[in-house]
Write a structure and sequence with these properties.
224 residues, alpha/beta, Spore Coat Polysaccharide Biosynthesis Protein SpsA, Chain A, five-stranded mixed sheet, 5 helices, 25% helix, 30% strand
Length: 224
């Protein structure tokens, strides 16, 4: 198997390098894609310092300061393409997995990630638990899924489409990436790979961006 960690970033400050560091020892590559958004040009791209910190922590960082993304989904679909390119293989039996982190998330117990994936080869999106700052746990299919050639995000709810050709018949398998709350189950996560959400550590300025512009991004995603 090959695993690529994919991180979309935009003004994530020191949290970005921490996210990269949490995943880098346990995956084959970490890809970071930066970029500002159409309609949000008052907020420029991420600073060179925070992107350089991600590079020094072991990530491959992509940034085009002349480009503005039309939506978050458009940006993340390009991130999928980058991930596929860097874990490409001529071995048709090789399974590629995408570990997706937001920059305010950490991979915990990453040393167990490959063992966690080994029996899940047929699964499209085995997912990972995500622990919130208040201790609540969500199961997040969006954080770990098969990175097949035809997988892409679609729609406001971040569905994954798997479109395959099988014996001349084209069919679609859709995976819903919605997160499901499972309550306080921290004891079951001991030694198990999971994601730790750190939105409470965002700077006041970055939190304000998220609050003020979230609706605009969501509206753009709805037409991606």
């Amino acid at each position: 198997m090959k695993i690529v960690c994919l991180i979309a970033t935009w003004h994530d400050e020191q949290l970005l390098a921490e996210a990269v560091a949490s995943a880098r020892p346990h995956v084959d590559e970490v890809i970071v894609l930066d970029g500002a958004y159409e309609g949000l040009r008052v907020w420029p791209h991420s600073t060179r310092d925070e992107l350089d910190a991600a590079v020094h922590t072991g990530a491959l960082v992509f940034n085009d300061r002349g480009h503005y993304w039309p939506s978050e989904i458009a940006k993340r679909n390009v991130l999928l393409e980058l991930g596929r390119a860097f874990v490409d293989s001529e071995d048709e039996k090789l399974i590629r997995w995408a570990l997706v982190l937001d920059a305010d998330e950490l991979l915990v117990n990453g040393e167990q990630l490959r063992e966690y994936l080994r029996p899940r080869a047929p699964d499209y999106a085995p997912g990972l638990p995500r622990v919130e700052p208040d201790g609540n746990v969500w199961f997040a299919p969006s954080r770990l899924f098969r990175l097949d050639d035809v997988v892409r995000y679609r729609g406001r709810s971040y569905f994954l489409d798997y479109c395959r050709a099988d014996g001349g018949v084209r069919y679609r398998n859709v995976v819903d990436l919605s997160h499901n709350e499972v309550g306080h189950v921290m004891s079951t996560l001991v030694g198990m790979p999971h994601v730790k959400h750190q939105w409470d550590r965002r700077s006041p300025g970055r939190a304000a961006i998220q609050r003020d512009w979230g609706r605009l991004l969501a509206a753009a995603d709805g037409i991606a």
